[in-house]
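Work Package 4 report. The design task specified in the project plan requires that, given a folded chain encoded as structure tokens, an amino acid be chosen for each position. We show below one input record used in the internal validation round.
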């Protein structure tokens, strides 16, 4: 924990100023308020499921959040020169396009109806919704890195500069009491567990634990992709252009990713995203974030299951 604390302390000392962080906080409050007042993601954007325009709406959502954070940081820090750099726009538009595609892609719905003749549609849908990022994220990232980026960014955190397991396990342990408290809240139990069961175990002739565990592996994979997007590309990748300024815009964009979640989870993502972003920047690794993110996600599902049982 000492290494994590020292990394956070060093970053805050080097980066914090009241003006920048205050305006960023105000911007976050505004976009979060608007989302939950008008039900932006669930009520409006998701009404276009199955329509390719949904990808564009997600792109606009993430672009507004991210560029809002970038402009605030650049103006407050008087570092607007980066906004004139073509490489900044190339990198940022690429990742926002990937985020829009990843958020709005819905072809796996039709695939779920086709596989196994649709007999276990719900189960296949849930699994594919967590695995389809192989097409929408992994492929584009590999091409971009090999053809355009070619910078020593450790493949956006997959090859760590240094990595120690214990501090991240301690972070997960610190979250467990909060997760336990949250599991008693109605909003939490309406959203979790993420998988409520299906007839897949009967279809395959296996124990319900087998299908549940396979689903949880798919669920965990989705969080690995999320870490790669936000702490890998938006933090480690963009740091070559923004330096420490890559953190706050990433946090704003990361909060917008949670607009379909309970309000408390969205607010918590701000602090979690900031901490994991700083650690990714310092270590040039996303593996610690993956451990924390997947560990917390599985703990939330487990807590919800225990409550409902």
């Amino acid at each position: 924990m000492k290494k994590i604390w020292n990394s956070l302390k060093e970053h805050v000392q080097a980066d914090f100023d009241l003006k920048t962080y205050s305006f960023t906080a105000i911007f976050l409050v505004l976009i979060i308020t608007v989302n939950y007042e008008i039900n932006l993601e669930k009520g409006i954007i998701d009404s276009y499921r199955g329509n390719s325009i949904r990808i564009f709406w997600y792109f606009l959502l993430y672009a507004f959040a991210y560029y809002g954070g970038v402009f605030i940081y650049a103006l407050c820090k008087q570092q607007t020169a980066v906004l004139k750099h073509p490489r900044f726009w190339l990198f940022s538009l690429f990742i926002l396009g990937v985020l829009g595609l990843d958020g709005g892609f819905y072809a796996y719905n039709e695939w779920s109806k086709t596989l196994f003749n649709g007999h276990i549609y719900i189960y296949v849908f849930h699994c594919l919704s967590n695995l389809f990022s192989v097409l929408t994220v992994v492929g584009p990232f590999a091409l971009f890195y090999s053809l355009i980026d070619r910078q020593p960014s450790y493949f956006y955190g997959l090859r760590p500069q240094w990595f120690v397991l214990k501090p991240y396990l301690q972070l997960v342990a610190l979250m467990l009491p909060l997760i336990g408290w949250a599991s008693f809240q109605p909003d939490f139990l309406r959203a979790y567990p993420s998988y409520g069961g299906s007839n897949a175990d009967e279809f395959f002739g296996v124990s319900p634990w087998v299908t549940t565990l396979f689903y949880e592996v798919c669920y965990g994979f989705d969080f690995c992709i999320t870490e790669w997007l936000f702490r890998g590309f938006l933090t480690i990748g963009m740091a070559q252009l923004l330096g420490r300024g890559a953190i706050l815009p990433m946090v704003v964009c990361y909060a917008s990713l949670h607009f379909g979640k309970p309000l408390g989870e969205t607010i918590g993502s701000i602090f979690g995203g900031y901490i994991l972003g700083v650690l990714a920047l310092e270590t040039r690794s996303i593996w610690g974030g993956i451990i924390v993110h997947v560990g917390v996600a599985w703990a939330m599902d487990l807590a919800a299951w225990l409550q409902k049982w």
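The radius of gyration is 20 Å. Validation will be extended to a larger panel in the next phase.
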